[in-house]
Amino acid sequence: MDLGLKDKVFIVTGGAKGIGEAISKLIAAEGGITVIAGRSTEDNNKTVEAIIAAGGQAVEVTAELGEADACKRVIDFTVQRFGRIDGLVNNAGVNDGVGLESGSPEKFMASLQKNISHYYNLAHYALPYLKQTKGNIVNIGSKVADTGQGNTSGYAASKGGINALTREWAVELLPYGIRVNTVIPAEVWTPLYETWINSLPNPDEKLAAIVAKIPYEKRMTTSEEIANMTVFLLSGVSSHTTGQIVYVDGGYTHLDRSIS
Ligand code: NAP
Predict the structure, then answer these.
(1) Distance from C-alpha of 60 to C-alpha of 38, rounded to nearest angstrom
(2) Cβ atoms < 10 Å from Cβ of 10
(3) According to the model, what pLDDT value does residue 260 have?
(4) Whose Cα sits closest to atom 17 in ligand 1?
(5) Residues in the chain with pLDDT < 50?
(6) How many CB atoms lie within 10 A of CB 33?
(7) Which pLDDT score is estimated for 78?
(8) pLDDT above 90 coverage of the chain, percent
(9) CA distances from 219 to 23, 120, 213 (A)
(10) What keyword terms does UniProt attach to this protein (predicted)?
(11) How far apart are CA 45 and CA 32, in angstroms?
């Protein structure tokens, strides 16, 4: 199947590591141009170099996305360099453990800043260009918005907000032919996941307990499986799909708890 991405330009936030890295690489493998926006120039460049070595096209823009000015800079950089934006993948986020009891009003607002403000800011600044290309937006959410996790109010509120914005933006952008969808991972082995599991007491036992409860094949989802759905939704092949929240999680969020 030809996804029709050739020479189209896609911004991937947090595109240097984990799920974002897999999305960046798949866009490039399909002939698109990936603009990796993330806070570490070194990490960004490593992924850009890997993509170029594999024969693809990618550039990086270093940005701390919690700052609105940095989001504007990502969009300005992309348009100056390529003259167009065909899609935005809002992916960067951090499960930062700001709990109701353990956190504070300041930490809660800082968590929203890290996890949801840039989803809005980038979409806002990209909109004039997405209108020109009938480009589209794919957000990466989390099952935490459905299930809770405990001790992560800022992250959970952000991910719930992202689900709401998916429907809201899908409606607002109908007149422009811009589609908006969200992909929900649950358990994917990435640097973020590794840091989170190691923050728990007995991480090995906890990991084994989680994996045993993933209905489909009792294994974690791979970053590539999240990327496959994301890039499908970015492409014109999914041309009548908008406002959808798609779970790529081996059934972890919704299937019957009694499944052994
Ligand atoms: P990851 O391994 O930490 O990779 C995320 C990348 O984004 C890192 O390069 C990180 O930089 C960068 N980043 C994060 N916040 C940023 C910011 N404010 N400004 C600039 N760069 C930023 O994370 P991941 O596991 O691939 O997660 C990607 C997305 O999937 C997130 O939205 C996450 O909530 C969601 N998700 C993941 C899982 C899972 O099981 N892994 C489950 C549910 C949802 P640093 O390395 O410097 O922090």
Answers:
(1) 8
(2) 30
(3) 67
(4) 65
(5) none
(6) 23
(7) 99
(8) 97
(9) 20, 33, 9
(10) Oxidoreductase
(11) 17
Q: Among this protein's residues, is 129 annotated catalytic? A: no
- Give the integer Cα–Cα distance in Å for 214 and 87: 31
Full-prediction pTM beyond 0.85?
yes
- Burial of 106 by CB count in 10 Å (0-12 exposed, 13-18 middle, 19+ buried)? exposed
Q: Who lines ligand 1 at CB under 6 A?
A: 14, 16-20, 38-40, 43, 64-66, 91-94, 114, 140, 142, 185-188, 190-193
| β-strand partners of 34 | 10, 58
Question: Which two tokens mark 49?
Answer: 């170099």
What does the pLDDT read at residue 215?
97
Per domain, the residue ranges of the chain are 9-186+221-244
Distance from the CA of 55 to the center of ligand 1, in angstroms?
25
Closest Cα to residue 99, out of 152, 156, 155? 152
State the amino acid at position 251 in one-letter form: G
Class of the CATH-defined domain 9-186+221-244? alpha beta
What's the pLDDT tens digit per position in 201-249? 999 999 999 999 999 999 999 999 999 999 999 999 999 999 999 999 9
Structure tokens at 141: 């959410």
Residues listed for the chain: 260
Identity at 133, one-letter amino acid code: T
Q: How much is the CA Rg of the chain, to the nearest whole Å?
A: 18
